[in-house]
């Protein structure tokens, strides 16, 4: 959706707060400061060596040291053996030069060497672990999605994503408990950068500007970072840039985003079969059927823009909402609390959610995307699913459909791309969007050249590393069916228009043929009856009768 500016909200310190920064340490004695710094990095070193590798994103604690940042090298050892870099002793991977997309991009962003997301992630690291086979992770200690086992060579039974309304009471409670715990549990492996690349080492050059963040807030921050403006100077942002929307990467970026959260929640809950549910928002109604206290929270009666106090989500604080503030200060979101979650569905207004027919029309588009691979692409499945284009191919810029319309319908926090992931409905909304994408992939099995290799907007070329995930993962690596990635959907989506038309033609032809056959049969019966009636007045044999009577012959 189009970026809109959030209101500047005073920030409060929270458990998701900066790990470093001079302002927080001005009152400490230098000796104490040195000891604390040693303990901090020693603790992080212990965590990176002794904790197993987890999911992939920006940035692993093990690589946020002064030396690693100066060398631009993120190749941690796997386990406690220092020489086991990237699990090389087990043949899991090697430390290699990062591969980036070098093809030209198109779109409104025409600057060069200004934004730290260009040629991601070279502004931060130019060496990382490249894992072999099905190994994955920042130190190759994990398996790719869909694989398991000590050698990552066994297919993992796919988890099944269900409609949130069909969850059992136990499944529903587990899902919402997982979200709640993720909101308050510090991410075990990753931290966020609170300054752009030129200021990442702080004013002294030896203080990495990073912050701890909870698992769910980390999920929010990733989405914010992908859509944030380019920082050109105080109050001088460049807004025409988006790495996760308005282009082909919309579908794969959000797919990977959900996979990361799903794996984090599986590990948090100790349940490998846990799956994110989806919300089928194609109801065509003007009410939010998941905005109840049993699910994501109803509206407060005294303030319809806030969440009911009976819902656990009324206690949730949002982050990364003050985009204008960050632009003015030339800084990044640091994960501080910025106010309560807001949501105000239209209720009795005329605004309605998408319909089943909208999905049917979207699934009838056989072309994945079309030039200019932007929000004005026509006859593009991606653009129709994202909600910028009518599935008929007739462009209408102010029109919202499917994904965009669902966000707009929820109102409040959900309409701001940089803050939308704060609302937990974001998870189930995008899970359903991904289900539509998966259905399209299965129906059309797109060829390799379906994804543009060049001249898509920045971040959206086929081999561009998705921002800000780390280690690097390209858009095309996620351009496959969900089952190949270890999950499926319990869903029955409508047939495409072509299938419906073909079915109608087949049924119509069958009925028409039957009617014609019936008419011919009736005509034959009438003709047969007519001939039978005529034959009733003719002798059975062509003989002449004698005028003599029977007795006379005798």
Give the key terms.
three-stranded mixed sheet; two-stranded antiparallel sheet; 12 helices; 6% strand; disordered N terminus
Report on the structure:
- The protein has 554 residues and is mostly helical.
- The protein has twelve helices and 13 strands.
- A three-stranded mixed beta sheet has the order 1-3-2. A two-stranded antiparallel ribbon has the order 4-5.
- A hairpin with a 5-residue loop joins strand 11 (230-231) and strand 12 (237-238).
Summarize the structure.
The protein is mainly alpha-helical.
Strand order of the largest sheet: 1-3-2
Q: State the oligomer.
A: single chain
Can you give the helix content as a percent range?
25-40%
Largest sheet: 3 strands, mixed
N- and C-termini, Cα separation: 114 Å
How confident overall, as mean pLDDT?
84
Order of helices and strands: HHEEEEEEEEHEEHEEHHHHHHEHH
Number of helices: 12
Q: Uncertain runs with pLDDT below 50, 5 residues or more?
A: 1-15, 17-34, 36-57, 393-397, 498-508, 532-554
Structural class: mainly alpha
Radius of gyration: 32 Å
Overall shape: globular
Report the strand count: 13
């Amino acid at each position: 959706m189009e970026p809109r500016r959030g209101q500047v909200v005073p920030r409060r310190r929270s458990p998701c707060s900066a790990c470093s920064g001079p302002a927080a340490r001005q009152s400490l004695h230098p000796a104490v400061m040195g000891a604390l710094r040693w303990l901090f990095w020693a603790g992080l070193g212990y965590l990176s060596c002794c904790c197993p590798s987890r999911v992939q994103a920006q940035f692993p604690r093990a690589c946020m040291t002064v030396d690693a940042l100066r060398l631009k090298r993120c190749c941690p050892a796997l386990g406690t053996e220092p020489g086991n870099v990237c699990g090389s002793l087990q043949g899991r991977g090697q430390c290699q030069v990062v591969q980036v997309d070098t093809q030209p991009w198109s779109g409104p962003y025409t600057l060069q060497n200004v934004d730290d997301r260009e040629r991601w992630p070279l502004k931060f690291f130019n060496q990382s672990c490249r894992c072999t086979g099905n190994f994955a992770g920042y130190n190759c200690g994990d398996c790719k999605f869909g694989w398991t086992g000590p050698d990552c060579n066994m297919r993992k039974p796919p988890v099944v994503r269900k409609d949130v309304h069909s969850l059992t009471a136990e499944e529903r409670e587990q899902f919402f408990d997982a979200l709640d715990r993720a909101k308050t549990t510090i991410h075990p492996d990753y931290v966020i950068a609170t300054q752009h690349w030129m200021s990442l080492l702080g004013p002294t050059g030896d203080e990495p500007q990073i912050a701890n963040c909870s698992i769910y807030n980390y999920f929010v921050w990733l989405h914010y970072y992908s859509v944030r403006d380019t920082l050109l100077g105080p109050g001088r942002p460049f807004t025409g840039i988006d790495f996760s929307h308005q282009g082909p990467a919309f579908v794969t970026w959000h797919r990977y985003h959900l996979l990361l959260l799903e794996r984090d929640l599986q590990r948090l809950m100790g349940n490998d079969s846990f799956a994110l549910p989806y919300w089928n928002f194609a109801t065509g109604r003007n009410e939010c059927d998941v905005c109840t206290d049993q699910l994501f929270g109803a509206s407060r009666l005294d303030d319809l823009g806030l969440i009911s106090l009976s819902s656990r989500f009324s206690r949730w604080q949002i982050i990364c909402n003050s985009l204008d503030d960050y632009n003015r200060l030339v800084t990044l979101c640091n994960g501080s609390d910025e106010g309560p979650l807001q949501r105000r569905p239209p209720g009795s207004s005329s605004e309605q959610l998408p319909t089943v027919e909208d999905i049917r029309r979207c699934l009838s588009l056989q072309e994945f995307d079309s030039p200019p691979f932007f929000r004005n692409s026509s006859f593009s499945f991606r653009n129709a699913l994202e909600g910028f284009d009518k599935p008929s191919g007739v462009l209408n810029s102010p029109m919202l459909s499917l994904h965009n319309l669902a966000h707009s319908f929820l109102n409040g926090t959900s309409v701001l791309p940089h803050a939308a992931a704060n609302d937990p409905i974001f998870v189930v909304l995008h899970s359903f969007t991904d289900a539509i994408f998966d259905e399209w992939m299965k129906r059309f099995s797109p060829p390799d050249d379906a994804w543009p290799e060049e001249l898509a907007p920045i971040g959206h070329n086929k081999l561009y590393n998705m921002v800000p995930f780390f280690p690097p993962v390209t858009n095309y690596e996620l351009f496959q069916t969900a089952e190949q990635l270890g999950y499926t959907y319990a869903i029955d989506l409508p047939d495409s228009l072509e299938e419906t038309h073909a079915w109608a033609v087949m049924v119509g032809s069958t009925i028409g043929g039957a009617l014609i056959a019936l008419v011919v049969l009736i005509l034959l019966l009438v003709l047969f009856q007519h001939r039978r009636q005529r034959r009733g007045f003719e002798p059975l044999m062509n003989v002449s009768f004698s005028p003599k009577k029977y007795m006379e012959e005798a």
